[in-house]
Amino acid sequence: MFFAFWLSHIPPSRLPGFWDTVASALAPNGKAVFIDDGPAEAAREEVLAQQPIPAALRRLDDGQPYRIVKVFHDPSELTGALATLGWSADVRTVGGSFIMGTAEPPTTAS
Q1: Which range marks the domain in which residue 73 is found?
Q2: E-assigned strands of the chain?
Q3: In terms of DSSP H, where are the helices of the chain?
Q4: Known InterPro entries for this protein (predicted)?
Q5: Phi/psi at 50 (nearest 5 deg)?
Q6: What number of CA atoms fall less than 13 Å from residue 80's CA on the CB side?
Q7: β-strands 46-48, 2-4: how paired?
Q8: Cβ partners under 8 Å of residue 104, min gap 6
Q9: Is 110 domain-assigned?
Q10: What pTM value is reported for the model?
């Protein structure tokens, strides 16, 4: 399964459920492959400080502002969070501004 620029919009408290959903959608021995904004991209965003959920302000072409969930995952922290959930993951910085990863869900006993 591949997803792009999706993970950064998942609130941290919902990550376990998100990864459970990903695991249930994978074929046997399947992997998740993803790319998203990394921490360096925060400099290009209007990050909203002191929010209960990490957020940024986005403006439409007409200037109208919207608050969005935006989590700039650090590769090693995300790898650790996935390991805590039982996943085997390899997450790296690519192109200076992005993260890319592969993740395999926990194996279940037969």
Answers
A1: 2-104
A2: 2-4, 32-37, 46-48, 55-59, 65-69, 88-94, 98-104
A3: 15-25, 75-84
A4: SAM-dependent_MTases_sf (IPR029063)
A5: 55, 45
A6: 5
A7: unpaired
A8: 30, 31, 32, 87, 88, 89
A9: no
A10: 0.90
- Work out how many domains the chain is built from and give that number: 1
Inside any domain, residue 109? no
For residue 71, give the CATH number of its domain: 3.40.50.150
The confidence band for 15, taking pLDDT boundaries of 50, 70 and 90, is very high
AA letter at 49? A
Amino acid at the residue 106:
P
Q: Mean pLDDT over residues 71-77, rounded?
A: 98
Phi/psi of residue 40, nearest 5 degrees: -65, -25
**CA distance to 48, 54, 67, 84, 101, per residue, from 35 (Å):** 23, 19, 22, 20, 7
Over 70: is that where the pLDDT of 108 sits?
no
